[in-house]
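Checked the freezer inventory, then went back to the computational side. Two predictions to log before the end of the day. The first one is the construct we discussed on Monday; recording sequence and tokens without edits.
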Amino acid sequence: MRLRHIEVFNAVMLTGSVSAAARLINVTQPAVSRILAHAELQLGFPLFHRLKGKLVPTTEAQTLYPHIERLFTQLDDVQRLANSLKGDQREGELHILSVLALSYEVLPRALRFFRQKHPDVKVTIDALHSPQIVS
């Protein structure tokens, strides 16, 4: 599937109709129909059943959709990162894996200092026993 196919497929899944999908992504209704038809041709299977003017996702479409949702989540992450790279804005994430003993006293103190210098950084902490960390 091409990116345009994915965008149209996602819009149709979100809205449930070609006309609403067209409005969502700011293209014409015939363009959405054409792109959807081309995607189905390229894939070799239909994505939607057309029943009384409604689009009903096929089993294949329902199987694909969670992957498409993850892709759009990743695209949102890319957009957020691109926005944070403008100017002096720096946004990020810090993942910490620590042994339990350090997570009670040492880590909270260190994080307090880190937060003062980097308040916009998302921090996640996993405190585990040593054997869990090794594995």
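The second is the one RB wanted added to the comparison set:
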Amino acid sequence: MTVRLRSVERADSARLLAWRNSPEVAAYMYTDHRISEAEHDRWFAGALTAEDRRYWIIELDGEPVGLANLAKIDPIVRRCDWAYYLAEASTRGRGVGAQVEYIVLRHVFESMGYHKLWCEVLLENEAVWKLHESFGFQREACYRQHVCKGGRFQDVVGLGMLKADWEAAKPGIEARLAEKGVRAADLPDAP
């Protein structure tokens, strides 16, 4: 099983719209509405050109299976946000998310040299915020009734990781990956 990130390309647009509107992905997004082609086209144009964002297609054995991104990239304070989703149900529970998390953390803290990485996760998406915590993210916030999904307000967990947290957690993360047969040194860097 080979996991890698590659930059989003124009040819990915239709796939991303389908993923964003799929029930499996939309369930964990902040919005509920069906994304129109025009709305998607505006978002996608920004995704390709914005200086404060970076988008990657997650590939498993060469096949596109999800999206990872950095947002609010701030080189002055050396901080950014991140998120990802696995759009293909067959990838879940196979360790793909853990490999994506490792690749992104290594990229942010080692390649970019940033100080802090931040993310927000719906409280109901327990598997994801627990994965983040297992990688060393600290819960820094709980935004009560922060988004409305399906006519019901939901809480959002804010998680942060500092470069020092990464440095402390990295050996344990690499050991856990190795137990699953993944050599961290073999994981490709994010472009």
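For RB: The beta strands are 3-7, 54-60, 63-74, 79-86, 116-122, 138-149, 152-162. The radius of gyration is 16 Å. Let me know if you want it refolded.
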